[in-house]
Amino acid sequence: MLSKGNKIGNHIQAAAGAIGYLIFRRGFTNLNKSPVRKPVPVPSSPFHTTSERPPRSPILFYAAVVLVVVAGIAHAAGMATVNDDAFISFRYAQQFVNGNGLVYNPGERVEGYTNFLWTILIAAGMGVGADPVSWSIFLGIFFYAGTLLLASGFARRMTGGDTGILSTIPIAALALALHRDFNVYATSGLETSMQTFLVTMLFVVLARRSDARAFLLAGFILTASLMTRPDAIVFVAAIVVFTILGKKEIIGRLVRLGIPLLLLFIPYWLVRWDYYGFFFPNAFYAKSIELPYYTQGLTYTWMYVSSYYPLMLLLPLAVYHIIRRRRAIDPVHSVPGPAAGEASRVGKRSVRLGLLLVISFTLFIVRIGGDFMFARFFIPITPIAYLLLEMFIRRVSPAWTAYSLAALLVAGTFFRYDYFSEKNHVGYIADEWQWYPPGSLGETKKSGALLKRYFDGLPVQVAFWGGQGRLMYYAAPYHAIETSAGLTDTFIAHMRLEERGRPGHEKSAPVDYLVRRGVNFYIGPLGPLPPGGPALNLIVFDSLAARIVAYRNPVMDSLRKYPGVYFQPMPELLDEYVRTLGGKTPDDVAADYGWFREFYFRHNDDTTRERAFMEYLGAYGRPPG
Q1: How far is CA 456 from the centre of its chain?
Q2: What are phi and psi of 290, to 5 degrees?
Q3: What is the distance in angstroms between the CA of the first residue and the CA of the last residue of the chain?
Q4: Please, how many CA atoms are within 13 Å of residue 295, restricted to the half-sphere of its CB?
Q5: From CA 135, how far away is CA 132, in angstroms rounded?
Q6: How much is the pLDDT for 108?
Q7: Using CA atoms, how far apart are residues 31 and 391, in angstroms rounded to an integer?
């Protein structure tokens, strides 16, 4: 049953659809009219409507920007959290600071991160003694505030000489400050906020200017974006298409765009290829990015767009832009003189660029199946989508239409449809903030500190499920393997995918592989225990239960001294078992020995105890094995 909040959201969606239809019908009607106007001076901005009245003082606008940014920072800080995936990057950063290189496990080169620049920034903070959690939150909010300022600055250019009340409001920035998931991923410990800032800056630079310096700067921004997340290659393709569609100085602009990529990104990519041994990051293989997953991608996209339903207005905006793309001058913005055509072209260029960036990345998200984290993949293009809507709002007339659309955008963002009001996941998609809310890290740090004390000085190897990334960072075992996708292990990452499931969690390490790798313990969802019962392959570290993958005497004997660690010591159990062999059947002994051999004897030099089994089974004509 839907909650009261969701019912209200449904009503708002229905009302928004009806209002949106009427507004667009009226707005398009007005846009298609060519009112007779007296000649007026050429406006300073290509986005605003003309007016004979003097523009409002920018002081009100700047005051509004300050309020929006401060309120947004407060909103983001109040929701600040760090999820488990971030701690994989933290461990890479820690190993780098310790002099072991960008590795998860010393001596093992596996590229388990996809956010090189972000990881380097985290390492820089750790190098001067900063806690990675606090440092990542600070960096995330810093880039988040930068994105709000970029959106506000772009809005200021759109207002130009406008005199209406909307000229004092940075509409997109205000909506973003109220956007729940935009604020969630202002932190999270991930690179999302940094990537969003870079993508927004890319749009703002090329939307405002088309000269040589703008394309050179865009090349540097794209390089930084690619080194933050490789999937920014989609934006590179979009900018190339945008440049070609511009039909001016195509070769020169593409050359300037490509110079930073050739000088910085390609050498970086070749060095990392040589260092890690694979052309793509390990996550590319672990998450099967090469395989399409359209059904899940469409579900992921629909959930985001229907949750923040004002984004549905982008579709009629795109249709409107396509229909009118061949018109040299927009009637609403007609101004006399030669500058009018250039002003209109700049406005159209901004819309074209924004739509290319948003649509291309949305298609990419649909193809790869989205993500298990709700909204995360859409955050980098959300500011552009909102700026496109703001551009459209500022173009329509009469004033009440623009006010209604602005109110719909802001209110519809704040009163979103919440799919997670009653549970923290829907199908394969989860609200990560509910999994890792603020204050949830304390218990994990406490458990990690205990494990670190127990593991100190031991060559412990741990296999862990993805959700235990935070615990592994604080436990700091000598060697760790992520087993839900193989992010830190090339064998698991390159396993053949038999069937699709939860994005990013579709591969699971075979037990025999973990045994061959020398894994001692598995920490994660336990599920059914192997033959022998929990008393034999279960270990409890205080209140944390784990599975013993292979019983190795040196490690287990060292752990026995801690009263908080409980497990069944195998040597004593085997002695008791051998003492009572006469009361067991050969079939039972053969089955038990098979399990003892895989769990214990193969990993320990214990010929005396093993010989007792072999002699017993040999006496009954049952060769062991």
Answers
A1: 33
A2: -70, -15
A3: 56
A4: 5
A5: 5
A6: 95
A7: 14
CA pair distance 175, 414, nearest whole angstrom: 7
* H helix runs in 525-606, sequence order: 534-537, 553-559, 570-579, 586-599
Please tell me the distance from the alpha carbon of residue 45 to that of residue 335, in angstroms, as a whole number: 11
Cα maximum dimension of the chain = 112
What are 465-507's pLDDT values in tens digits? 988 999 999 999 999 999 999 999 999 999 999 889 999 889 9
Residue 328 confidence (pLDDT): 44
Alpha helices for 40-170 (secondary structure H): 58-78, 84-97, 116-127, 132-159
CA distances from 179 to 261, 278, 386, 583 (A): 33, 38, 11, 70
Residue 547, classed as helix, strand or coil, is strand
CB 364 within 8 A of CB 381: no
pLDDT single digits (tens) 84-103: 999 999 999 999 999 999 99
Strand arrangement, sheet containing 479-482: 479-482, 461-464, 521-523, 544-548, 538-541, 565-566
Question: What's the pLDDT at 341?
Answer: 45
Q: How far out from the chain centre does Cα 609 lie?
A: 52
499, amino acid identity: E
The two beta strands, 429-430 and 461-464, are: unpaired
Q: Which helix (H) or strand (E) holds 544?
A: strand 544-548
Query: What's the Rg (C-alpha) of the chain?
Result: 30
- pLDDT over 50 (residue 355): yes
**Contacts of 117 by beta carbon, 8 Å cutoff, 6+ apart:** 191, 194, 224, 227, 228
Mean pLDDT of the chain: 87
Is 55 exposed, middle or buried, given 0-12, 13-18 or 19+ CB atoms closer than 10 A?
middle
Full-model pTM: 0.87
Parallel, antiparallel or unpaired: strands 479-482 and 521-523: unpaired
Distances (CA, A) of 321 to 388, 392, 408: 11, 10, 21
DSSP code for 45: S
Question: What is the CA angle 253-206-136, rounded to 5?
Answer: 115
Other C-beta atoms lying within 10 Å of the C-beta of residue 566: 14
Degrees (nearest 5) of the Cα angle 195, 172, 156? Answer: 100
Mode of pairing for the β-strands spanning 521-523 and 461-464: parallel
Q: Are 383 and 409 in contact (CB under 8 A)?
A: no
Kindly report the length of the chain: 625
Cite the DSSP H helix spans in 46-83: 58-78
Query: Is the separation of the CB atoms in 476 and 454 below 8 Å?
Result: no
Q: Is the separation of the CB atoms in 86 and 126 below 8 Å?
A: no
pLDDT of residue 34: 39
